[in-house]
Write a structure and sequence with these properties.
Distance between the termini: 80 Å
Largest sheet: none
Radius of gyration: 26 Å
Structural class: mainly alpha
Shape: elongated
Length: about 190
């Protein structure tokens, strides 16, 4: 017989399934605690659902703030590069003189865009996981308006005329900036 106080044995047991494995709605919480009070279980389940939906909204808000930060950073870098290029109109006629400062700013821009791109992907993965959990929770609700119904109305993201996932647009911005920065770096290396 196992000792129920043996915490070492319990600690070695996995607390949750490996990533990627689904749990049914009843496995999401220990319903046995509520055997005598189904109404309390439903009330707690609904409150947890509301909190989880709110937490996914907060992730989206953080994602938006991160995008604003990185977009502001990129436009600031381009503004400084513009100030470093002396007499822009004359420089275009004579060929812009790319200084090491401009090259440094361009490299900084590339690195920050790479970080931005990775952050967008990370938020996408986090939101995807959250929406999978919400969808499983909605299986225990009378309807699933937040994930199933809304996603169905949006054509499940398959028809860009109905809905174009924001992540596709978000990921394009850092890549566009990286392309522009690479032009600056290339011109600097070419000695222009």
């Amino acid at each position: 017989m196992e000792d129920p106080n043996n915490l070492g044995a319990q600690a070695s047991q996995p607390m949750s399934p490996p990533l990627g494995e689904s749990k049914s709605p009843t496995e999401l919480g220990d319903k046995s605690v509520y055997e005598d009070n189904e109404e309390l279980y439903q009330e707690h389940f609904l409150e947890q659902y509301k909190m989880y939906v709110a937490s996914s909204d907060k992730i989206s808000e953080r994602r938006g703030r991160a995008n604003v930060f990185f977009l502001t950073l990129q436009t600031s870098i381009f503004t400084v590069i513009g100030f470093l290029v002396e007499d822009w109109d004359q420089s275009l006629a004579d060929g812009v003189r790319y200084t090491p400062e401009i090259a440094f700013l361009a490299i900084t821009g590339v690195l920050s865009c790479y970080t931005w791109f990775r952050l967008i992907n990370s938020y996408k993965q986090l939101n995807t996981a959250k929406f999978k959990v919400i969808e499983r929770m909605e299986e225990s609700l009378p309807c699933g308006p937040y994930v199933k119904e809304e996603w169905r109305e949006l054509g499940e993201g398959k028809d860009p005329k109905i809905y174009r996932p924001l992540t596709n647009v978000e990921r394009a911005l850092p890549l566009i900036f990286i392309g522009m920065y690479c032009i600056f770096i290339f011109l600097f290396l070419m000695g222009k």
